[in-house]
Design a protein that fits this description.
alpha+beta, 6-stranded mixed β-sheet, two-stranded antiparallel sheet, 10 strands
Length: 410
């Protein structure tokens, strides 16, 4: 009777909707019995075609079907930037990007740009962030951590903001931090949670031990360096922190939970962009600062750079950063590094058997779905060599690595 009253109450238009697709696997779901009976009655009594009266909407509000010519109606205007006017504007050419009058460039901006130039363009210039829709709630209790969760958790455990412990207390200190994480509900409960906690501590004890050993060689905290550089009308302002001193030499010392070597034992340039820029910034200020990076699989020593060379390199990076705001440069970090390091950029970008390519990134897939499309762009090789060539040369000439526990790199 409620259904009948709703139908009879309609005057100008009757609109009935139902969830016709499963939110998990997109399989078809039938309408309720009442709606199905109404549709059957309309078809039998009025000889109408239900397909003409029924509109099947996309499962997600960001579907391209809402923004194509003659597409479905939508009020989710925030997605039009990805599929509509903004997408057309990218293809047609955007006007030059105007920075804010009081804008000050930070090292973090350059790090994000070099790591993922295409994603940086979409976020910084267009305000577009490609993400999945709201995930449905989990029906089952998680029994493991995904890679991103594990990364953030390990970095939290290695956080050096607290008072550093003695070498003999490394394991107990990490175990205490892991216990607090367990109580916070981050790790699975029961025996699985205990196994994860033990694994975390076992993996991080060598990293923390190597970091504390180096820290003991440079016992005094050194003041932060104020970074202030001009590149034409653009000004860079930031701070260089994590500085230590032994009274004669100043170094910066950092620890990370990620690996910095590939399967062949070679340095991974995509993991060392931030340390590279840190060394360039120190040298551009005229400070000969050695850097130490303690990672999960190696201890790296980063030699000081020459001031003139660092200033030229930073100026070139800033110029490319500025150009990428006007239009996305044909660049992909890992593939460009493969190009300048005599690797296989095509396989790196497109992927292969049992490994995904760099084009799984939605921003890269939107602009250049496959390597052939990227390589056909004007400036692909020139920009790759200009931005990532100096990084590759720095890895070869100024970075030394040693296995964790083997002491300082020779």
């Amino acid at each position: 009777y409620l259904m009948l009253e709703a139908v009879l109450a309609a005057r100008d238009k009757l609109y009935i909707s139902w969830v016709g697709r499963n939110v998990r696997d997109n399989s078809e779901q039938p309408a309720s019995v009442l709606v199905s009976q109404l549709r059957d009655y309309l078809e039998a009594g009025w000889d109408c075609t239900l397909e003409q009266l029924t509109t099947e909407h996309a499962l997600q509000p960001f579907s391209r079907r809402y923004f194509e010519q003659g597409g479905l109606r939508t009020y989710a205007g925030e997605w039009r930037a990805a599929h509509g006017e903004t997408a057309s504007a990218i293809d047609a050419g955007l006007p030059a990007f105007e920075l804010e009058a009081d804008f000050r460039l930070k090292l973090g901006e350059l790090v994000n740009f070099i790591r993922q130039p295409a994603r940086y363009f979409f976020r910084r210039r267009l305000g577009v962030q490609f993400t999945d829709g709201a995930e449905a709630g989990e029906d089952e209790e998680p029994f493991a951590l995904n890679a991103l969760e594990l990364y953030f958790l390990e970095d939290d455990l290695l956080d050096d903001a607290s008072v550093p412990e003695a070498l003999a207390e490394v394991r107990s200190a990490l175990m205490a931090k892991a216990d607090s994480v367990t109580r916070a509900g981050v790790l699975p409960i029961g025996l699985l949670g205990q196994l994860w906690k033990q694994r975390l501590v076992d993996d991080l004890v060598p990293v923390r031990t190597a970091w504390l050993t180096l820290r003991a060689r440079y016992p005094a905290a050194a003041p932060k360096l104020a970074l202030s550089l001009d590149f034409g009308e653009l000004r860079m302002e930031d701070w260089i922190d994590k500085l230590r001193s032994d009274g004669a030499q100043t170094v910066w010392l950092m620890q990370v939970s990620s690996k910095v070597l590939d399967k062949k034992g070679k340095l991974r340039g995509d993991k060392l962009i931030a340390p590279w820029l840190r060394q360039l910034a120190c040298a551009a200020l005229g400070q000969r600062v050695t850097g130490y990076l303690v990672a999960r699989d190696a201890v790296l020593t980063l030699a000081p750079l020459e001031r003139a060379d660092a200033q030229v390199a930073l100026a070139a990076i800033v110029a490319l950063w500025r150009a990428n705001l006007d239009a996305p440069l044909p660049l992909a970090c890992k593939s460009a590094l493969a190009l300048v390091q005599a690797g296989d950029p095509r396989a790196t970008y497109d992927g292969g058997f049992e490994f995904s390519g760099e084009n799984v990134d939605p921003c890269l897939a939107r602009l250049w779905p496959e390597f052939a499309t990227l390589a056909a762009q004007d400036g692909w090789v020139a920009n790759a060599e200009a931005l990532y060539g100096p990084l590759a040369a720095w890895l070869d000439q100024h970075v030394r690595s040693a296995t964790i526990g083997a002491g300082e790199p020779a």
